[in-house]
Amino acid sequence: MAYAYLFKYIIIGDTGVGKSCLLLQFTDKRFQPVHDLTIGVEFGARMITIDGKQIKLQIWDTAGQESFRSITRSYYRGAAGALLVYDITRRDTFNHLTTWLEDARQHSNSNMVIMLIGNKSDLESRREVKKEEGEAFAREHGLIFMETSAKTASNVEEAFINTAKEIYEKIQEGVFDINNETEEKISDQLELNRQANGIKIGPQHPTTNSTLSSNQGGHQAGGGCC
Amino acid sequence: MNFFRGVISGQAAGPQPSGAETIQKLCDRVASSTLLEDRRDAVRALKSLSKKYRMEVGTQAMDHLINILQTDRSDSEILGYALDTLYNVICNDEEEEQDESEDAVAPLPVSGKHKNVSVPDENAQKQADDLSLQFTDTFIQDPEHVTLLLTLLEEFDFHVRWPGVKLLTALLKNQGPQIQGIILVSPMGVSRLMDLLADSREVIRNDGLLLLQQLTKGNAAIQKIVAFENAFERLLDIITEEGSSDGGIVVEDCLLLLLNLLKNNSSNQNFFKEGSYIQRMKPWFEVGDDNSGWSAQKVTNLHLMLQLVRVMVSPVNSPGATASCQKSMFQCGLLQQLCTILMATGVPADILTETINTVSEVIRGSQVNQDYFASVNAPSNPPRPAIVVLLMSMVNERQPFVLRCAVLYCFQCFLYKNQKGQGEIVATLLPSTIDANSISAGQLLCGGLFSADSLSNWCAAVALAHALQDNLTQKEQLLRVQLATSLGKPPVSLLQQCTNILSQGDKIVRRGSKVQTRVGLLMLLCTWISNCPIAVTHFLHNQENVPFLTAQISENLGEDERLVQGLCALLLGICIYYNDNSLENYTKEKLKQLIEKRIGKENFVEKLGFITKHELYSRAAQKPQPVFPSPEQMLFDHEFTKLVKELEGVITKAVHKSSEEEKKEEEVKKTLEQHDNIVTQYKELIREQDAQLQELKEQVASMTSQNEQLQATITQQQSQIQQHKDQYNILKLKLAKENQGQSNSQGDGSQVNGLQTEELTQLREEVEELRKQHSLLQTQLSDKDALISSLKSGAAQTAEGPAGGSDNTELLQELEALRSQVQSQSTEIGQLKMERQDLLRRAEAGSSDTLPSSDSSLDAAKMAELESRLGAQTSEMERLKAEVKNLSESRAELEKQLDSTTSTVAILQTEKEKLQTDVQESKKEQDDLLMLLADQDQKITSLKKRLKDLGETVEDEDDLDTRDQTDDDDEEDEDED
Ligand SMILES: Nc1nc2c(ncn2[C@@H]2O[C@H](COP(=O)(O)OP(=O)(O)OP(=O)(O)O)[C@@H](O)[C@H]2O)c(=O)[nH]1
Ligand SMILES: [Mg+2]
């Protein structure tokens, strides 16, 4: 599966807000009604297209439980994008956003794109956090914002894709240093930075690779095969 | 300084201070000296003593050394010494060399690393180990010390970083889990260690690899973080840089680390697959066909590489994950590359074996890969299918045991969930398709089955059993196979030949274990006839078989025969369980009686239990690969253990049942069938109700739409009625106006909106009619006006008469006035006549009087004038009379018109009433509809409830909707795939 770029994402937020469900909906187009507590971190991946380019998203879904916090912190540094999720039916998850954001800002690459997500928008009757509040918080902290439902899949694609668009734009603007070629020459420290921003340029392929480039899989949704 | 020299060099002269004393002095120096140089020298001295006086240095100096690490951060030299010293006391040199791959299936070829610890050293070794542990515990008592060490690793200086890496590695080796825990919770701990792989100094990078190996051992969370930190990319790069399988120990270390990261870590496996790293494994196996380079290191490297492939497609992984890895291994050509190694010459047996095992797991259960494998040919002349070549090795006694096991595994994996492959193998034995000119898989298997080598017997039997696994067709097909025994004797069926060998086994001199052969054959027979009544009949048809089995089971045999007894019991049990009662002598019932008489039920069940109680049974049940520590232990096949699990219970039950119980069972079965029927009926009912429900839903829908329509009509009608009312009001108004004699006829028509119904047109016509009448009346009125004005002008003296109105009363008054006028004129005329008479009389008298002539001529003129006036008045009166008559007529006409208008109004009023009742009716109808809807709702709910009571899951309509949607989505997915 040839790709132009590879972006690493992390999904963070309180336990039970629907992080794993969002990932599952994005990769497998399924919804998991039972809370399957994430232990540590789980991995998922999917290919998307932006601006006619194939972009591979590698997503690490972290555990929201406090006890895993030190483990999940290890994932901030290497991520290009973060989905910060709260549950619109539980105000406390909204109240904790500040802590999450501080944590993320402290441990991550300064260019990391953060998308604020108010999940469970299907549960309108139980809403405790107004959409405007989410918008205001996002505006105040310079985040992108969306309300989603991992259950109905509403806005789920958009959340992941818009984050990628933002990263893509930053690349176009030259904010990220992502040059693969000079990899050998750059010093120890720079090399680390390159790895740390969570972006990789895809293998350059002037002539298409014989066995692999039956590339219909590019548009394929889901963490399916290969 | 002198002091130190004394310590170190002055050993020959004078009384020597004990090691402990010296070390204590050094420690004091380290603790109290204010000069960095002094401290540094003291630590250096400690370092030099740390191997010889390990115990003393460890016990006395540990705290001081740690203190140095904390306080002398700026001097890398002293840090280096301190770290080295700590390393020396904590690390166990000997122990360092022997750890990895304790769970590797086949022992790794002995590379330089594996030293055998000789027996005399054992005690010393144990003590050293204890010391390492003890010092490690002291060091990590305060977790801060580990954190401190992590910080020191950020120091770029070689003298600090390198010993730091080694020390942490040693600590991890001694107390892995605890230190892993500390590193995991220290911010960016793992990530920082990952940075070691990027160190440009190879020594550090390589020792970093060893550190990461220890760090990732058995800790999934750390494994994931390391993978997240691009470990796969880095490691694969290093492997390539170092020359892949031709590379040195660094490649090996990278591979070991990769194994740590991937083994039993599905998340990392998924990441590895999604990162397209499987494709990067392919070039590893592009090993040339030249026999030149098979160094020990290369063998080790390839071994690990093959293990990595296997980790990705292990049968214990989730089927979906394995399937997708298998797919990409075929797509990227990795499988093809492995098959090349399989068919290449000069490959060390060890590698060949592991390659076979790897190919096995890459094709297991994957139709595409299995088909490809079936098509692989060996580059022999003539070319032979790889399968045949491999089977030749399996039934060849001279081949290594592990290789033969690997081939069996490969063959099993080829047939696993592969009906096509099973058919192809069985076909090579069938009379119709047999090809006499070339060696076939079937021939090899038969050869193996009846060879004098028990291992071949077992392997061939199990292999053949796998060709029948879950495949009724092939079980029946194989019954057709006939074997030519010796010349002149009739051919015997394969099935019979197997039992013959079982019963006459002792006659043939075999190499290996008799039990092995019999176990193999019994497993084949059990697999063959289970779930296949025809095969059971075939088996029972031979009169010798049942007596043989009962004899085996009932005999009191030795320990090593117990398994055979158990298997015989199983076989007999299958004969009962899958018996279709087609043989009169061997019906279920008769067989059971036989067991009761000859063996005893309890005894039979006990013997049956021997199988699962066997010590090797559970081992085989664990995983599909046939792995046996020694050839004698090759007894159970994995798939067979599944069959036993499935059958043991049901056979026990079947045997325990008395004929009465059997009858009861029959009854129960019947009731069950009845139940089934009932269930079917209910299902039918549910289906019907479903349809009804559907119908009702449709009805509701259509009624809803009807209702809507009706409502629309009602609204329409209401607005019409409103319009009619408006029109009516206008007309009423107009009529009133008309009645008042006002002649303004403004556009009432403009009030009519464009609603074209019949009533409207009718009304319009009526209006038109009325309008006509109205204008008619108006013209009449104006006529009268004209008339009256003419009357006015004509009769000036009757000026006070009607002013020209057309009102009837006025007309009457006018008429009255005219009459009175006429009356008064008549009276006047009468008076004048009387006057004239009087005058005539006076004139007659006057002729006799004076002036009679002039008077009489004056009177005559007067008379004439009066007479003409009278004539004019008379005609005037005549005309007025006609006029009155005319007016009366006109009044009658008007009165008629008034009547007709009044009736029109009445008609309109009834019309309105009619419309109002219409509205009323529509409303009623609507209410009725609503009632009906409610009714149907009720019905649906009760139907749902009934369905639920019937045990059918009834979802809410909302749920149904969402489910439909997800179904659609799934379909989309499939489309995209
Ligand atoms: N109605 C509704 N429920 C949701 C939605 N997303 C998640 N849930 C439910 O919320 C619960 C928690 O979802 P998870 O995705 O497992 O939560 P998490 O954030 O991964 O939790 P941790 O793994 O503990 O951090 C589950 O029961 C989900 O079914 C949503 O969009 N709508
Ligand atoms: Mg989760």
TrEMBL record, chain A:
Subcellular localization: Cytoplasmic vesicle, Secretory vesicle, Acrosome; Endoplasmic reticulum membrane; Golgi apparatus membrane
Spans annotated as Disordered: 203-226
Matches recorded under PROSITE patterns: RAB, RAS, RHO
UniProt cross-references to Pfam families, sorted A to Z: Ras
Comp. bias intervals (Polar residues): 205-218
UniProt cross-references to SMART domains, sorted A to Z: RAB, RAN, RAS, RHO
GO molecular function: GTP binding; GTPase activity
GO CC aspect terms: acrosomal vesicle; endoplasmic reticulum membrane; Golgi membrane
Protein name: RAB2A, member RAS oncogene family
Species whose genome carries this gene: Oreochromis niloticus (Nile tilapia)
Top-level taxonomy: Eukaryota, Metazoa, Chordata, Craniata, Vertebrata
Gene that encodes the chain: RAB2A
TrEMBL record, chain B:
Subcellular compartments: Cytoplasm, Cytosol; Golgi apparatus membrane
Coiled coil (UniProt feature): 679-780, 808-835
Biological processes per GO annotation: endoplasmic reticulum to Golgi vesicle-mediated transport; Golgi vesicle docking; intracellular protein transport; transcytosis; vesicle fusion with Golgi apparatus
Keyword Membrane: yes
Keywords tagged on the record: Acetylation, Coiled coil, Cytoplasm, ER-Golgi transport, Golgi apparatus, Membrane, Phosphoprotein, Protein transport, Repeat, Transport
Function: General vesicular transport factor required for intercisternal transport in the Golgi stack; it is required for transcytotic fusion and/or subsequent binding of the vesicles to the target membrane. May well act as a vesicular anchor by interacting with the target membrane and holding the vesicular and target membranes in proximity.
Entry protein name: General vesicular transport factor p115
Species annotation: Oreochromis niloticus (Nile tilapia)
Region Disordered, residue ranges: 96-123, 947-977
Gene: USO1
Transmembrane segments: none
